Amino acid sequence: MSRRRVHEEEDGYERAYKKRRRVSENQEIEDRLESLILRVGEKSTSSLESNLEGLASVLEADLGLFRSKILRILTECAIRMPEKCTIYTTLVGLLNAKNFNFGGEFVDYMVKNFKDALKACKWDVARYSLRFLADLVNCHVLSCGSLMQLFDNMLDTANEDGVPQVRRDWYVYAVLSTLPWVGRELYEKKEQELDHLMVTIEIFLNKRSKKHQPALRVWSSDTPHPQEEYLDCLWAQVRKLRQDNWAEKHIPRPYLAFDSILCEALQHNLPTIMPPPHHESYSYPLPTVVFRMFDYTDCPAEGPLLPGSHAIERFLIEEHLRQIINNFFYERKDCAAQLLNFPYKAKIPLDYCIVEVIFGELFRLPAPRNLEICYGSILIELCKLQPSTMPQVLAQATEILFRRIDSMAATAFDRFVWWFAYHLSNFQFRWSWEDWDSCLHENYISIHNVLAETEEAQICILRNMYALWKNHYQMIVVLTDKFLKTGIIECSAIANWIFSKEMASEFTKLYIWEILHLTIRKKNKHVTKLSTELAEAREKLRRAESRSGSSSEDEDNNKDRNREKPSEDVVERMEEKLETAQADQKNLFLIIFQRFIMILSEHLGRCDTDGIDYNTHWYKWTIGRLQQVFLTHHEQVQKYSSTLETLLFTPDLDPHILDVFHQFVSLRA
Fold this sequence. Notes:
The protein has about 675 residues and is mainly alpha-helical. The chain has three domains: about 25-210 and about 250-265, Serine Threonine Protein Phosphatase 5, Tetratricopeptide repeat (Alpha Horseshoe); about 310-430, Serine Threonine Protein Phosphatase 5, Tetratricopeptide repeat (Alpha Horseshoe), CATH 1.25.40; about 455-545 and about 565-665, Serine Threonine Protein Phosphatase 5, Tetratricopeptide repeat. About 70% of the residues lie in helices and about 0% in strands. The longest helix is centred in the last third of the chain and has 43 residues, at about 570-610. The N and C termini lie far apart (about 150 Å). Component of the nuclear cap-binding complex (CBC), a heterodimer composed of Cbp80 and Cbp20 that interacts with m7GpppG-capped RNA. GO terms for molecular function: mRNA binding; RNA cap binding.
């Protein structure tokens, strides 16, 4: 081998080594820059402001070699770490103040990502990109006017025809959810345009269909917390923010410390961005109903207050917690640790917020974002990491869910049962079971009260009772008496049931009339009892008033007696109860006599038409039962004789029936 050839090979090795070393050094610098950008805002011995200022200087110095790398990392951070949005917008603002061209390139890069996300139906990415662009207005990177134009273009989508409502909903939601970040800046510089934007959104929401809402509710009842549709809830929160002059207390704004630097920077204008037209292959986020389980009364009095349901801080906190869950759900321990390290935990009852958000995600309809067991495993890790408070809050939440289980959607009920079984299995099935002891014993009263809310329902109960016990008359009488005593069945329902067509075959049987008279006596005794109690209360009140003018020697005795005397309000309430009972009593007699008249008149009319004798065994029995009611309860019926004569026993009534009434009236003539 010649010397020349050996020398050439040595030069080649040297060049290759230098190239590899240069590539290695560049890679190290890129990794270091990426680490610095990713970790900015984390706990440090230096302040956030000094870290941002130092990082901006480092990045500005490296723009020549690593421009594309820095652009890519910053854009990815804006999307993947939306909770640090304002930190990265401040960093971009400082870079824009140092290098205007880089600021323009970054805006173009973000706009491209925003457009690509819309076309690819990556709706969360698109929303985070929009939020980042909006916050760049606060950092004097973008002009207010160009952002307002973008908002207007997005809201124009809400007026499109022939597109799914979920498409229009998302574009309105994207704009609304961005306003907490940039609303104050727009209010100060573009107030009229902002007002017009709010009016446009309000018009859309007022004419928007919400037929889907009942299907997405976890609870059918709005007590104690209204279950609001997500756009309606956010709209109420943004309106409240507007009333507060767009001043919120949750979003960190590090760019305020650099206002003197940022305000000197030149601003960029967004290009015209038009939302891509709808395509049948596009899939949009489904609407939701905001899950509410806690309010400030559920939290400890000595701790921080839970923001109200229409406070924008509530939305921002829940949004932030969901972002943490969605970023770390694949590793339950990291997720629980991140949730408990929430940056603003000193200002809120964090445990309550976390539990409410996790249950909201678990019960999310039609389906949760992640596997149901994922949320259960995160709750278990939270209990392990925070054993002093989290288990108590979770137990309180479980009690609330258990109490409201009767109004819970069937799907949510299943998920609650599965979660609770899974949770208990991880804690040796230990629970305060004595609190749920009542579940082990059957309690029919509450069920009967629900089943017997109307008179039709009460009659249905009586029909089913008869269908079951029709061969056991004594049981029918006993059960009817029990229904009356427990207040499950009203007297009027029993009267209507006895005279119904279904009971025609039983009409002449003795037990039926035993039930009817039992019913009347129950009502009579109730009225008599209330009358006696009212008379006694009036007498006590009269005596107390007559003693009020007695000598001072009797003052001590009068004080003791005055303690026993009822107040005038109590007497008034007793009078109202008596009036109600008497009205029910009169109504009962009216029903009974009206039914007698109807069946007797029908019988007499049919016999007259057919030309047959009316005086059958059935007629004798029924007219005799009518007389029996008059005579057996004559004292009570006498009170309403004038009403009966006016409404029922009128001169045009058949004489055979009318004679029975006249005979009764003549008893006291």
